[in-house]
Amino acid sequence: MPELLRFAIFILVFLSIVGAxxxxxxxxxxxxxxxxxxxxxxxTVAVIALFVLLVVSLVAGRSxxxxxxxxxxxxxxxxxxxxxxxxxxxxxxxxxxxxxxSVSHLAQAALSTAAPAQDDARRLFVSRLLASVVLLxxxxxxxxxxxxxxxxxxxxxxxxxxxxxxxxxxxxRIVQLSDVHLGPTLGLDFINDIVxxxxxxxPDIVAITGDLVDGSVASIGHLVEPLAKLKARYGVFFVTGNxxxxxxxxxxxxxxxxxxIRVLRNERVxxxxxxxxxxxxxxxxxHAAQFGHGHGADIxxxxxxxxxxxxLVLLAHQPVQALQAESFGVELQLSGxxxxxxxxxxxxxxxxxxxxxxxxxxxxxxxxxxxxxxxYWGPPMRLGTTSEITEITLLSS
Length: 397
Prior knowledge:
By secondary structure, the chain is α/β, with parallel strands linked by helices. 43% of the residues lie in helices and 16% in strands. The chain contains 11 helices and 12 strands. It has a 6-stranded mixed beta sheet, covered by helices on one side. The protein has a 6-stranded mixed beta sheet with strand order 6-7-8-9-11-10. Strand 10 and strand 11 (366-370) form a beta hairpin. The radius of gyration is 25 Å and the shape is globular. The protein starts with a helix and ends with a strand.
């Protein structure tokens, strides 16, 4: 399927869902409250304007200069996050109202009494009461999410025991960055801070597990230049994520190689000395084959001819790739992609697609660590999770 057609289908589906969300929020927080006419009209126009802002930002944003695109996307994505939290609050309120109504009807049926007529005044009172609660809950959640999202990444330290790791390599430290999403909303100040904090950890390896960028090399290539300052004993390694394929993965792989980052495309390297070492492999994103240019995840190629007695650490953007990795002797897979759900309760939806949503998990005999994202995508918000820089210490068991 041509990339332009795929993008058009994505936008159509996305905007249909977002349009339905706008209508639902408007119906519950504007229409049902029977507000004064001028207030009703003003809020209706505001909801329509915010929806149009999203449409323009997503559909036309790629063709606009970076500065204009950024000025559109920041408020548009922020509104998208606020809308999500209010929709979740409204759904919970409607479930509670439905529950009370159902219990009341069942009780009346058991007592064989007629249900009292619910007059318009009472219905309006209930609607306004629930709307007030939703505004308080949704507003509070928005404040917490913004503070967490804009608060920066935390350093999360993890220790992993590998049965085949040589004792001489015990203590090897991998600093994992994932889902940085450099682009219209995260720029030079952000990546400079990440590079400085990563170097302060004095890593042996830096692993960047995909979704580094949101934009082409031509438009945002300068934003990755600080990554050339990353220092690691055995090198800095990168594997593609799905967003690289929306942004020109071929060009990005070439550009990252030019600034000293080793791009692992279905290949592996030996980490350590001639006497004591382990294998580090990296594969393309799970959906890379859809985009052509010879890309596509191929773990068989990455592990071909290797000594199965050696420890194998795999870099793969999506956790679901561990379902295949186990059969190739992978002891530890490092992934990202999920953002830990980013905004609760989205993590439950992510769980339907990925075997591990955040932190350490296991798929068969393979341990999987999922970085919740060093940056964020879309809304500058997080609820129920935080951005992270992960320091993974490998131990010989």
